[in-house]
């Protein structure tokens, strides 16, 4: 297991949502800033109705290009926006709902995007997930072989 932080303080992390995730996005953005990250907010700017694929695709593009090290996505359930992000082969977006799933997403799947559902996850739980996600290193070993296979398709 590596001691290298998943994302070091000062590095860039993107965040995006749809209208259903807008309020939680604002909260999680503040938490990312508190962790010391440079946060790139890809929108939306308010709760006007938008389409989650537009925001999931935009964030995935930035993660794949390397302009940000990781990302956080929020929609109503977290499902649609994570599906959108996972269309990008270099993205491993994990929909989390507990600290355990957030930890496993990093330790076993080397997820580079955390997705959460604002309508199905308590704010405190989502915040705890974010903290755990960014604090958990990838375990590597047998998991590295499996993650490599994800990228081989
Ligand atoms: C928007 O109403 C809702 O469908 C969206 O936020 C998300 O839950 C889709 O997966």
Explained architecture:
The chain has 153 residues and is α/β, with parallel strands linked by helices. It has one domain (12-152): Ribose 5-phosphate Isomerase B, Chain: A (3-Layer(aba) Sandwich). The chain is built from six helices and five strands; from the N terminus they run βαβαβαβαβαα. The protein has helices at 22-34, 52-65, 79-85, 99-107, 123-135, 142-151, and strands at residues 12-17, 38-41, 70-75, 93-95, 113-117. Strands 2-1-3-5-4 form a five-stranded parallel β-sheet, with helices on both faces. Helix 4 links the parallel strand 4 (93-95) and strand 5. The mean pLDDT is 96. The structure holds D-ribose. D-ribose binds at residues 18, 20, 52, 75-77, 79-80.
SSE layout and pairings?
Blueprint: E1 12-17, H1 22-34, E2 38-41, H2 52-65, E3 70-75, H3 79-85, E4 93-95, H4 99-107, E5 113-117, H5 123-135, H6 142-151
Parallel strand pairs: 1-2, 1-3, 3-5, 4-5
Helix pairs in contact: 1-5, 2-3, 4-5
D-ribose binds at residues 18, 20, 52, 75-77, 79-80.
